[in-house]
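Human: I'm a chemist; would you kindly supply sequence and structure tokens for a protein?

Assistant:
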Amino acid sequence: MKQGFVKVAAATPKIAVADCKKNVEVILERIREMEEQGAKVMVLPELCVTGYTCSDLFWQERLLEAALEALEEIARETAKVDALIFVGLPLEKDGKLYNAAAALNHGRVLGIVPKKYLPNYNEFYEARHFTPGDEAVTELTLSGRQVPFGMNLLFACEELPHLTVAAEVCEDLWAPEPPSVRHALAGATVIVNLSASDEMVGKDTYRRSLVSGQSARLVCGYIYSTAGEGESSQDLVFGGQNLIAENGTMLAEAARFKNETVCTELDVDRLVSERRRMTTYPPQKSDGYCRIGFSLKPVDTELTRFVDPYPFVPSSQREREMRCDEILNIQAMGLKKRLEHTHCQSAVIGISGGLDSTLALLVTVRAFDLLGIPRDKILSVTMPCFGTTDRTYQNACQLTRCLGATLKEVDIKEAVTIHFRDIGQEMENHDVTYENGQARERTQILMDLANRSGGMVIGTGDLSELALGWATYNGDHMSMYGVNASVPKTLVRHLVRYYADTCGEKKLADILLDILDTPVSPELLPPKDGVISQKTEDLVGPYELHDFFLYYMLRVTYAPKKLYRVARYAFRGQYEDAVILKWLKTFYRRFFAQQFKRSCLPDGPKVGSVAVSPRGDLRMPSDACARLWLEELEEL
């Protein structure tokens, strides 16, 4: 529960229709199973105490009495279970019968939530037996106690303020105006659904999309438990497709027809943070709601949910290929518009033989093809200097020729040497001036060549470099349009790989594959024995870590300790804890110190949910201090 993680579960017991005593046994078995897995919110199916398929037996007094006795027994037997538990049963109130969800905690029935929307079409006849529930909260007497009864109930955890749970029952979710909408706007971060949804061909896909979509629309966790084997198969079959979703992501799903229990963790702090960030999410208004407190013992929730170490890169190959093509189109369309608007018929790119300039050239080629401008109007400029290796030089030249762009070589060694002499920089002093002098000379050449041709300088720097400030101010930091500005380094690799796999030209593919195999380097220091001596990731840290840090800091707004925790979990077996902590500190130091470079970025298209443009996603003062973030890490 610490840091906002709470383990939740949905289970489907194999019930016996109308046998409440038997059903208590199997329900308690499932509760014990969920307890062993550490679940703190447990959800069981609709009417599971009696069975959903009792039909006219719901009118039998003996069944209703047995259901109430079963609820009391479940409450007694779970007095020592540290969880909020939801079970479904029929309950009579004021002479009417309700399809209800009972919430239990530490042996007490906290409240009863009735179902509002009763399906009475196709195979369903609920209106024959039940009365629709009301939003207004009244009271029901259970075992001599007055228990809140109504749809507008919020169950709030006293130890974890952001864990507020509300319930709806089956068809409530399928209706045009689900109660969960009001519940979420009243402050519920987790919605539970006790369901008995029968199986039909294709219904599982729709059910999954419904749960996932509702969790996204409401920015909530959604726990869906449905009936399975054990219900009457007289006319229907139930599959037990239990689902747990969080803000549009399906975290856990049970295999159908197996009565499985699913268990995972919801991050309620993240949900609250996302709601705060969304200006279109209304302020919380809980008028007309009854807020009921429940207690859980604070524990360190063991993480079992999938945390993607590469949040910018889809894990499925098919989705990755679709995403890569989409991103290349977004980049190219952005550049196409800018070229059209400025009436530019040429573009200038500094080509190094590295990943970023390769991607920028590929995007520019696509934009020129869309505009019908000959590719030879792209001026690809290689500018060898002290750190250039033969491998990157040859790749830059061959790539340009293969794509049909115009190649121009400008050797900058002499110009940089004269510049160093003019400012008194010793050639043997390989400091930041030595490095940045080369980068700025290259940018000056590109800008002047663009002026000569009436063209536009295409920026090559990527999102990861901008986050770390790994760019020379007014050097490679500057361009006339930065096509890679919101593409992280981990994704750059996949975009180039995708192009290699789909271009249909073996020679071009071989060049791109060799570029992918080349260490990432600015090549500003002299090589050793002809091999790159300056490897970026040795200096600033692995880009896969920094991209992870960037996503979870900016997009998810994790605090440093929580970010460190999930990074250790995501990269377990790949990096030692000390290595992750070292580079996380480096990330925070550089991210805060280098904001001044991001404050004056050239224009460039946004392609994903994380970007650092001062005109778009990131409004951050250049003089902000990193102390609060670093101090929290020093406590580790």
The longest strand covers residues 84-93. The mean pLDDT is 96. The CA atoms of residues 389 and 529 lie 10 Å apart. The chain is about 40% helix and 15% strand.
